[in-house]
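A quick aside before the break. I want you to see a complete sequence-to-structure record at least once, exactly as it would be stored in a machine-readable document. Don't worry about memorizing anything.
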Amino acid sequence: MTYKEIINRFRTIVGEHRMLKDFGYGQLSDLKTQSQLGPEEQSVDYPYVFLLPGSNTRDNSVMNYSFNMIVMDMARGEEGDEYDNYISIQSQCQLYIDDMLARLYYYYRDQPEVTLTGITYTPFKEKYQDELAGMTATITIQVPTPLDACVYPFESFKPVVSVLNTVDRTIGGEGGDDKAFTYNVSVFDPEFAWNINKYTSTIPGQYEFVVDQIITLNQPAVGEALPPQPVISQLIQGQPGIQIEAISAEGWPTQFESTTKQYRYRATYKAVIPAPGPTYVWEFIYVKNPVGEESTLQQLSGGTLKIGREE
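That is the input. The structure line, written in tokens, reads:
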């Protein structure tokens, strides 16, 4: 969920509320008043909700969006106790705030889920151009927003391969089962360097491998370990093979939940061909065997592997 989507959601909630009449966003200088001179669209209907932005912070993979939500109504002069009048308005405005927060939290079932923390309420009575009373709520909305090293607007690597898989496939386990992810459809391969699960090249440069793959886990038997996070197997003619760890990765499961739970594994790997010479072969696998037996997983269709070269 983006910052703009959060603002628009508050706007929608106010529009759906039976009592709230108007919504605004911006700095305090942007507050509208009923007595304000000018075009009709610049005036306001009460009760009025105004969203004042605060400072937004990132805590690792969580964005914290801060707002002062000001809910106000006119402090009308009525017979009786003047204090009771604006205190009643303050109390009602707190209920409006609670209505909006309940709608935001319980009605919408977005993934990732939005959580609300650290909410404070401050009653007020102010005289702007209108004499107003109400309640201000200081709200922090926490939205899981991990930085994505796999998708970014920088073009530093020339695409050389783009492939995808169109079939579900069982991978892993002991006893000779195939451990390589396969991508059976070549979307882009001008050098004809891709073959099911291997990329072969002799061209010098730094290479980047970006994978985006949905998987599910099969039920482990007693004593079986889950497959570990994938590596790339690098083979060079006349040299022992090595395994290359991801430089960034997210989404790989570390415990079994169910056979229907889907995991989106996204990762970036890098490798280098330093100079013309032997043939390099890279295979996308997760063959780092744990100690003992291991369980299997399902590579679901629709996954992609993109390879780029920085020459």
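Two observations worth writing down. The chain has a mean pLDDT of 84. The first helix runs from residue 3 to 16. We'll return to this after the break.
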